[in-house]
Amino acid sequence: MVSFRELARRLVADGVVPSISHQRISKLSQDDPDFPPTVPVGRSRAVDYRLARPYFATRKSRQGQRTDLQPPADE
């Protein structure tokens, strides 16, 4: 189990992603239902690196994508 800060550091060090912040990982953990399970550790959250690494390795990055220009999904 690793903190989001340590997860961000390891993902970059292992070359899984070029860059990522622990804040982005936190946001993904809240918004993405496919994000691996997390556990509370004090005031922080932790995730199993063995589950998180494949999640980030196969995740399609949408960095800089303008969602305000796309039609709503129900149309």
Short description:
This protein is of the alpha+beta class and 75 residues long. It is built from 3 helices and 3 strands, in the order βααββα.
> Which shape, going by the Cα principal axes?
globular
Q: How do the helices and strands follow one another from N- to C-terminus?
A: EHHEEH
End-to-end distance: 41 Å
Give the biggest beta sheet.
Answer: 3 strands, antiparallel
Main sheet strand line-up? 1-3-2
Number of strands: 3
User: Percent of residues in helical segments?
Assistant: 40-55%
Mean pLDDT: 88
Number of helices: 3
**For the CA atoms, what is the radius of gyration?**
14 Å
Structural class: alpha+beta
**Low-pLDDT residue intervals, each spanning 5 or more residues:** none
Q: What share of residues are in beta strands?
A: 5-15%
Q: How is the topology of this model organized?
A:
Elements lengths: L1 E2 H10 L8 H10 L6 E4 L2 E4 L1 H10 L17
Antiparallel strand pairs: 1-3, 2-3
